[in-house]
Amino acid sequence: MDPRRLVLRALLVTLPVALAGCATGLVARSDGPPSTGSDPAFAFQNKRLAPLEGPHIIAPAALRDGDILLSAEAAPLSSGIRLFTLAPVSHAAVYVGEGEVAEALGGGVRLRTVARMLDEESVIAVFRHPQLDAAAAQRIRDTARSRIGLHYDYVSTFLYIPFALQRHACELPVLPAFLRGACVTVLARVQLGLPGPKDRFFCSSFVLDAYADAGVPLTTARSTWHSPADIMHMREGDVAALPVKQPLVYVGHLKTTPWATDSASPADPISGQAGTDRP
Fold it and tell me: Are the C-beta atoms of 24 and 174 separated by less than 8 Å?
């Protein structure tokens, strides 16, 4: 075949992914024959929240201490976050037992019941640290609960907006993982500056710091470099833009809607429901 046609074909395949800022990498295969089941395979970053076979619906009773809940709602703020991060989620919280989650919102760090979360969110997916023992889960729970009432990190949130846009240049397809990580790291250090005080959080930094300060870090990168989308991409079989120390496993959905399951589109096709921004 004409080499020029090969180059053109490659460009046609990679251009849409490049425009989407979709990271690529090698992941362990689990669907091959036994002899090659663990062979690495080339993969694109997975923009879907649910598995290919569809969401697995679970009850709140299935939650365990330390579970991470990623969610989105039908509101302008949530849509904006999903648009910037090219993901179907806009919020992260951690389950702390007694039917409650701990989370960082505009009013500060607070507790919210799972029942209220089910009423207010349009989609909620649950992810879990597969090696988390009871002692570590208790430490995460205690750490998260001890921070109730602390302030929201508006400064880091404001700085994250240009970083969220420019980091997609580091996530072009076929970019080696080490080069992608170095690119995002340098950009984060320039855009986000030095670590801020440990008494202010936004949603994803709150979750990651609760894990790290409990002695079970999920990443070696700073918590303020992560969005809820980054936590989603920490799952097994996905391609993360930032280093992952422990991949998460998908547990199931507490609640779902078609727009958040079938694609990563930020659109909210929920007629007649305008939604409200989180406090």
Answer: yes
Does pTM surpass 0.85?
Answer: no
Sign of the Cα torsion 263, 103, 107, 111 reads positive
From the list 91, 203, 226, 233, the catalytic residue is 203
Render pLDDT for 145-187 as a digit per residue (tens, 0 to 9). 999 999 999 998 888 888 888 887 777 666 677 777 788 888 8
**168, 226, 233, 253: which one is catalytic?**
253
Alpha carbon distance 106, 104 (integer Å) = 7
- What are the DSSP E strand ranges found in 166-215? 200-201
Please name the residue that has the structure tokens 């024959």: 33
Q: d(Cα 241, Cα 221) in Å, to the nearest integer?
A: 11
- Known active-site residue 203: yes
